Amino acid sequence: MKTNIKDVQIALSEINYIILNSEDKLQFKIPDKVKENISTNMDKNYVFNPKGELSPMGKAILSVIISKYIADKELIEKYREYDNFYYKLIEEEKVKKYKELHNNDIFFNTHKKEQDNNELIKLDNPINQLVEIKKESFFIKIKNFILKLFNINK
Fold it and tell me: What is the pTM of this model?
């Protein structure tokens, strides 16, 4: 996903609105330098609708601010557990989709491969039956060659 500067500026405007309208004790937890950077780089013409939803970039910035400056250790641990849980869920979903796409893959169909190998080993399988190799003597080879040369059928 490519980040657009305008999207970042809009997100900073949203974050600035949230910070200015939050409780004083939360505002004091955020360093003045961070608040100054947000207000300097935000889109000054953008008006955030508090009944609307934050942009994805705004959500990301807000989560960083909360985890870095506002949240206590317990909340950070809960976020970490939440992230790990959903990360595992997403990874399991990826594996499931990969298995569906590559059902003949050697990594996932080992049971089927073993069955195929067992089928090949069975003696009644036509592939495993012995082939008789006829060994002709030198005189028979000469005779067959002469017969072919004169187009005579045996």
Answer: 0.52
